[in-house]
Amino acid sequence: MTTTDHSRPGSAGGADVPGPLHGGPDDDHTPQQLAAMDRTELDRLGARYDGVEVLHVEPVAPPGSAVDRQNTRKVTLWFALAGVFAVVFLVIYAGSGWFLPDWQWPASSNTWSAIFTPLLGASMGLAMICIGIGLVLYVKKLLPHETAVQDKHDGSHFDRVTTGATLMSGLDNSGLPRRKMLRRTLYLMGAAFGVMLIAPLGGFIKDPNKGNPLGTTPWREGMRLVREDGTPVRPGDQEPGSLATVFPPVEGGDHTVDGPVMLIRLRPDQMETLVTPAGREDYGYGDYLAYSKVCTHAGCPVSLYEQETSRILCPCHQSQFDVTQGAKPVFGPATRSLPQLPITVDDEGYFVARGDFPEPVGPSFWNMGRLG
Amino acid sequence: MATDTVPAPEKPATLAGKAAFEVDDRLIVAGPLRRTLNKVFPDHWSFLLGEIALYSFIVLLLSGTYLTFFFDASMREVIYDGSYAPLRGLSMSAAYESTLDISFDVRGGLLIRQMHHWAALLFVASICVHLLRIFFTGAFRRPRETNWFIGIALLVLALLEGFAGYTLPDDLLSGGGLRIFSAVFLSIPVIGTWVYFTVFGGDFPGELIIGRLYILHVLIIPAILLALIALHLLILVKQKHTQFPGPGRTEHNVVGNRLFPTFAGKATALLFIVFGLCAALGGLVQINPIWLLGPYNPAQVTAGSQPDWYIGFVDGGARIFPPWELDLWGYHIPPVLWGALGIPGVMFGALALYPIIERVLTKDTASHHLLQRPRDVPVRTSLGAMALTAYIVLWISGGNDVIAEKFDLSLNAMIWFGRIGLLVLPPIAYWATYRICLGLERHDREVLEHGIETGVIRRLPHGEFIEVHQPLGPVDEHGHGQLAYGGASVPKKMNQVGGARRAIKGFFKPVEEPAEVQRQAELEARGLEAERADRELTGSGRPSEGGRPSDGGRPQDPRD
Amino acid sequence: MSTTNASSEVPSQGARRGLWRRRAVAGTPASAARDRRRSKQRRRLANVAGLMAALVLTGVGYSALAPGANAADDSTGNPSNAVEAGRELYVRSCITCHGSNLEGVEDRGPSLIGVGEAAVYFQVHTGRMPLVRQEAQAPERAPIFSEEEIDQLMAYIQENGGGPTLPSGDLRDGDLAEGGELFRLNCAQCHNFVGMGGALSSGKRAPSLMDANDLTIYTAMLSGPENMPVFGDNQLTPDEKRAIINYVQTIKAQADPGGAPIGRTGPVAEGLVIWLAGIGSLLFGIFWMGTKA
Fold first, then answer.
1. Chain A residue closest to C259 (CA)?
2. pLDDT digits over B32-50, tens only?
3. CA–CA gap between residue B340 and residue B395 (Å, rounded)
4. Which residues is C198 bridged to in the sheet?
């Protein structure tokens, strides 16, 4: 522990000369005393110093006895099993596609690729669980059972008082309590600084009222109702009692959230019980009605058309709308009817919209009734 | 060289000893290390529940890091051209495509993905079970309220983290869930539309949300979770773990095993078991088969649309809430706000404030380190049962369409079950739990007074049949026990007071001779009597004051 | 056929012959009574025998002379016979609810005019018809009618009411990926993303497609049974229908690469598994690892 050359400054270090001893338990126990104790005694001594008293220790079985040997065999077996499973995992993982069948996914079923992942999971899982079981058995059967008690300490009054004094004297020394102007400036500065730090979050904010995006959809007058493949729809294309999803013919129209529309053709007996809400008498076309597919509860596409009960059921929260009563909600948590798209047929015989929806589409929101 | 210093201690001889010396010479860690190794932890089984949460979090971190190397959190439209034929040629987001690649084109990728998802479900489930244990045993009382708050925060963060995680693949099911999530924001009064546009960077779905959820999911929330978990454990270690009342256990000590080697061994074992369970589930049981769900499309939806189980109660609340919309002069507050934000808000608020509520109601401001058996606090236990019943009704309502379809029930009837059940079943649960708690308490005291029912029938000389009872302690002149109830569990079977002889080990043939077992049992019995002679109970049981816990009437730890 | 014949009697060989046979002495009033009893017994015996013989003869005669039971089923290559046979089946099983002229009966059954053989195939082949009782939805059962009888019913309904006919050719001849997209847009909301079925309102359900063959799926789309919407050939072209069927049947037969599919229904089953298998097994583990009490 000595450096050989002491001529340079800083080359003689603290390790050359042993310093005074640590203090505390080193004062009570000399190294000679400690050297005279065996391991168990040293363990107990240290524990007692930490406030822990070991009450009793008992081996599970006398060391070397038949029970002990049996326990050891058990634990060894579990760890060995874990190793075996780990190797199985490696074999399956690395061997697939090599000396085992390929794991890559084909279109057909019941091949090695279908059991590749289950085998991997089973072998890895079993390997880990076997280690866990082995460890538990080790603790329960091979380690001596020991019960220990540890003191709890309450808070130290000395510490509280001295720490408080240190803090408060620091504050006193700073003179802040009596430097009012400085303090007030600090508060104001702190406020401004804090706001400055979070101000860049303003980049997230977007104005929902600019251009009225929530109150309008891509639908405009004269737009054809098109299917998901872009083809327009004729009145002869659907049977009575049918539902088709149609979209506005704009860029990305089949992926807009407020564009999808349900084009429903009613059956004759549904036509008999049809109740058209006031002001919407000319919204349909013959036995055709077009309703927004976006549920007015939470925005899922409503979709489930029960042609006999005339109900449109939303699978998300089970709101049910009656098609023969203006898609009014008749069950479930929805409160607003599905907005109806006014449709007609153009010169070439294809369905077109006569304008946008008369009300906002989708879930209700705060200023829905007072939009632009 | 000073003479008042003692010569240097004996130098270590082994390699490990030398290495340890070098480390301690530089860092001086021996003392803190010994203190840590000697820490005592009580080892009741229910104290291991929090560890399950911790270990499933570790599984999540490891498997999640693996997934980040393959996942592309972008909503850019791509045309799929990978291994899975039924989706080939379709347009989808890059996020969905990269998840398909992990599932079909990365060796072992599907295993890791499924492990990650199962571990997430297990993480939240174990937090909930751990929360129930803390609640029903009163471990949240002073001085542990802070840890309780941190725990509730961890639960809420875990829910958000899970939601963000299963939304990342951008499949049909989770995309629908994201849509509902957006509608909840929209429903907030006054600022709802602003919050909605801010979160999504425009109208739903926009092009930013998957990327934003990704950063939340892999960086921000895990960082906060790690910090809070570290704090949670630090406070636990500092305050020491609570324990059930029992012989030798007081408010000023902890009885159990030292950290090294017993507790560490068991904790490591549990880590492997949890990891192994996640791996086994990850391979053997399919979860979130996104290739069957298809990519997200706002015009498509599947029957049986549910979130993952831990968000189920929010969905259930949205389903059963009646169609009550508040219309304030043209301003609307739709029902989805109450169902999906109101109910969880009330629930988590009540949970977070519960320690304060209980302290105010019971006027109990003392520090507690001993736990309570649930039966001994009937009001709290019944309140907990009531809350749990309400939660379970909401949870079932979240899956009511799947239940209706599988069990041939009416969907509309399931909704009504949820609505009425939420109001009617919790009070019934409260009352029933209360009566059960009282009954159990009464039985405890009866056994303390009259002893254990042994099942042995004796006929007295004058013809009367009596059952022989084994008293638990000294009896007075009337034959009644004089032990007071101490908050610990009362033995109710003869086995629990050592009434059964020691088992002979061995499956096909005994490992020890029966005579040997008999001899051992006699030795132990004699040893027990010898101990009883010099046993004494001191007031605090503090080892530093020389007191030792007694073993009188103590139920034996089962050996196996 | 029995006659009293006193002379045929065996002369008695003593008053008592056996313990249980006491013979009356000839010529006594007892023997006359015995003779009468005897003849009565013989008459009865003869009556019974005669009746049995008559029955047997009639049966043999009938089966020999009556026309065979299968004589009416020679519909192969003979359409009018099939329609007629179908009419007979209809009158026996369907007329009560659907009327004598397919016009339907109020509150019992709809009109079958225009439903076509496709609808008949679907309803009868899946056992939904004949309906056992009126309830929220006709349940799927084993079909009552044989394949041949179903053909006859189809012929009868098609002849008298018209409507969509059965398709021909390979019903899976369509693009797999396109079929998937169409399925998810038009079918998944009721039947679930792979066709495991889903709940409709008030006790009704969109059934699982697991047991459906190609023709059943096709005819269901074409006829729109009960609450299912009608998907005519102009809405979903025959090619698109074939694409959907290809997708459904391929996915049904496809293995699950991630292990046990647990019903392919989504998070509800997954939550159940994590609580029962996950937390359940871990609870056992920690009971074992820790102490009790």
1. A118
2. 999 999 999 998 999 999 9
3. 12
4. C206
- B268 CB neighbours in chain A (<8 A) are 135
Q: Name the 3-class secondary structure at B333.
A: strand
Q: Specify whether A275 is located in the same domain as A331.
A: yes
Phi-psi region of A301 (alpha: psi -120 to 50; beta: other; left: phi over 0): beta
- DSSP secondary structure, B440-467, as one string: HHHHHHHHHHH-EEEEEEEE-TTS-EEE
Asked if the C-beta of A105 comes within 8 angstroms of chain C's C-beta atoms, the answer is yes
Tens digits of residue pLDDT in C241-284: 999 999 999 999 998 999 999 999 999 999 999 999 999 999 99
Amino acid found at B23 = V
Where do we find the tokens 């069957």? B292
Q: Which CATH number fits domain B39-245+271-372: 1.20.810.10, 3.40.50.2020, 1.10.150.130, 3.30.70.360?
A: 1.20.810.10
- Give the distance from residue B180's alpha carbon to the nearest chain A alpha carbon, in angstroms: 5
Residues 107-126 of A with CB under 8 A from C: 107-111, 113-114, 116-118, 121
B431, B444 contact by CB (below 8 A) = no
State how far the alpha carbon of C236 is from the alpha carbons of A137, A345, B95, B180, C142, in Å: 64, 21, 31, 30, 29
> What type of residue is A165?
A
What's the CA gap between B367 and B199, in Å, rounded? 44
**Based on the domain organization, do A76 and A39 belong to the same domain?**
no
Q: Is A34 on the interface with C (CB under 8 A)?
A: no
Q: Yes or no: say if B121 and B308 are a contact pair by the CB < 8 Å rule.
A: yes
Put simply, the answer to whether C251 touches B172 (Cβ < 8 Å) is no
Going by the DSSP 8-state scheme, the letter that residue A111 receives in this structure is S
- Do A241 and A354 lie in one domain? The reply is yes
A239–C230: do the CB atoms touch at under 8 Å?
Answer: yes
State the pTM of this model.
0.87
CB B410, CB C203: distance < 8 Å: yes
> What span, in angstroms and rounded, lies between the C-alpha atoms of C188 and B176?
13
Out of B110, B129, B244, the one facing C258 most closely (by C-beta) is B110
CB–CB of B28/A22 below 8 Å?
no
pLDDT of residue B548: 40
Please report, rounded to a whole number, the percentage of residues in chain B having pLDDT higher than 90: 75
ipTM (interface pTM): 0.91
We report the CATH number of the domain holding residue A245 as 2.102.10.10
The total number of residues shown for chain A amounts to 372
Q: Using a CB–CB cutoff of 8 Å, tell me whether C75 touches chain B.
A: no
pLDDT in 10s for each residue of chain C, 293 residues: 444 444 444 444 444 444 555 555 556 777 777 777 778 888 888 889 889 988 998 888 877 776 554 444 444 555 578 888 888 889 888 888 888 888 888 888 888 888 889 999 999 999 998 888 888 788 888 888 899 999 998 998 888 888 889 999 999 999 999 999 999 999 999 999 999 999 999 889 999 999 999 999 999 999 988 899 999 999 999 999 999 999 999 999 998 999 999 999 999 999 999 999 999 999 999 999 988 86
Q: What percent of chain A has pLDDT over 70?
A: 94
Instruction: Evaluate whether residue A248 is within a structural domain.
Output: yes
Kindly state the tokens that stand for B376. Answer: 């001994």
The answer to whether A344 contacts chain C (CB < 8 Å) is no
Domain that includes residue A85, residue range? 66-150
The number of domains in chain A is 4
A108 with A49, same domain: the answer is no
User: What is the DSSP code (8-state) at residue B30?
Assistant: H
Decide if A324 is inside a domain: yes
Quick one: tokens of B395?
A: 């949870």
Note whether A246 and A363 are same-domain residues: yes
pLDDT band at B78 (very low <50, low <70, confident <90, very high): very high
Residues A323 and A342 in one domain: yes
Token readout for B428 is 């019934």
Q: Are residues A52 and A90 in the same domain?
A: no
